[in-house]
């Protein structure tokens, strides 16, 4: 939230302040009030208490947000008692939408949310490993159009499409990826921009997952997080001081590429596990381990030990508050978490809490929505700082101002 430039009447405290300063002060206060409304409906008193502005100043300033289209007056309902019902306002989150897109080697998922991050619609489609880049893109684009139609939303109302993909991403281009056919070197941002027409941002999928955990998941209170994806593949992402850490070229968190860590072949510990003459699936292995089967428990212990080596490397290097384990293994529960914690602690000096994600396979698409919201809020703040008037709600914000 921007710094509140306090005034008691909607004007600067000095009558001799330059007109430009007074205009900027008012725009900044408008932005502060609007961001407070993004957290939920607010009365004038609540806005004044939260921002430190006088109630009179808030009353004068907030009335500008309604005709602009950013805010709406809340019906106060029937009068109770002798007093006048409190005036309330809400953020008009429905003026625009964010589309979060998770394009993976096995499926595509689309999450549509409004500008307050509220869930509108989520859908998915299968996309097998054998698909080429053009085919995979077509699945993603068709799914976006289908989702928007299902939600009754026009593509013109989409402000940002945020895309998550495996691999190292820099400037919207997939610089390194060995998982999906024809994907490495793809200018994914340009391809999606051409197909959808809206503003597009692209980020590594595991990076988006840590954003989701910090926003809606099991690490909301933490500012230093390591997220480890453990599923069909294993990868990690890093948040420090509440911000995603990408590194110089977008490759931070790729320690799993080191063969010495054992992540590349960790899934082999869950293959060929036979109990009572039958080979178990991964899910059955964890279930049998939880039920006390010694063969399954040994397989899970070896798998946990392999994952723990990489987790311990992150803990020793970064000393995070929380380690979040996501991906398919997050559904395994204590049968995986307990041996993992034990093996990590055997290798580390400090012992952060290790938590299993509750977002399941939605974390990437939800993180993409969070990234899209951050882009909108950054561009709005830039426009407020540099424009001569407070901008109306429009997707043009994404092209009219630079972050």
Question: Could you give a short account of the major beta sheet?
Answer: 5 strands, mixed
Q: What's the CATH first level of the largest domain? A: Alpha Beta
What is the N-to-C order of secondary-structure elements (H for helix, E for strand)?
HEHHHEEEEEHEEEHEHEEEEEHHEHEHH
Q: Report helical residue fraction.
A: 25-40%
Beta-sheet strand percentage?
15-25%
Strand tally, please? 17
Which architecture name of the largest domain does CATH use?
2-Layer Sandwich
Radius of gyration: 24 Å
Task: Summarize the entry for a quick read.
The chain has helices at 19-37, 44-51, 55-62, 65-68, 133-151, 188-196, 205-216, 282-290, 294-318, 334-347, 363-386, 397-400; strands spanning 42-43, 71-74, 88-91, 97-103, 107-114, 119-126, 158-165, 168-170, 173-176, 199-204, 225-230, 234-240, 243-245, 274-275, 278-279, 322-326, 353-356. The protein has 403 residues and is an alpha/beta fold. Strand 11 and strand 12 form a beta hairpin.
Question: Which labels suit this protein?
Answer:
alpha/beta, 5-stranded mixed beta sheet, Nucleotidyltransferase, domain 5, 3 domains, 403 residues, single chain, disordered N terminus, Arc Repressor Mutant, subunit A, globular
Descriptive overview:
This protein is α/β, with parallel strands linked by helices and 403 residues long. The chain has three domains: 1-91, Winged helix-like DNA-binding domain superfamily/Winged helix DNA-binding domain (Arc Repressor Mutant, subunit A), CATH 1.10.10.10; 95-210 and 362-377, Nucleotidyltransferase, domain 5 (2-Layer Sandwich); 219-358, Nucleotidyltransferase, domain 5, CATH 3.30.420.40. The protein is 38% helix and 21% strand. It has helices spanning 19-37, 44-51, 55-62, 65-68, 133-151, 188-196, 205-216, 282-290, 294-318, 334-347, 363-386, 397-400; strands spanning 42-43, 71-74, 88-91, 97-103, 107-114, 119-126, 158-165, 168-170, 173-176, 199-204, 225-230, 234-240, 243-245, 274-275, 278-279, 322-326, 353-356. The strands form five sheets. A five-stranded mixed beta sheet has the order 6-5-4-7-10, with helices on both faces. Strand 14 (274-275) and strand 15 (278-279) form a beta hairpin. Mean pLDDT is 91; it is low at 1-20.
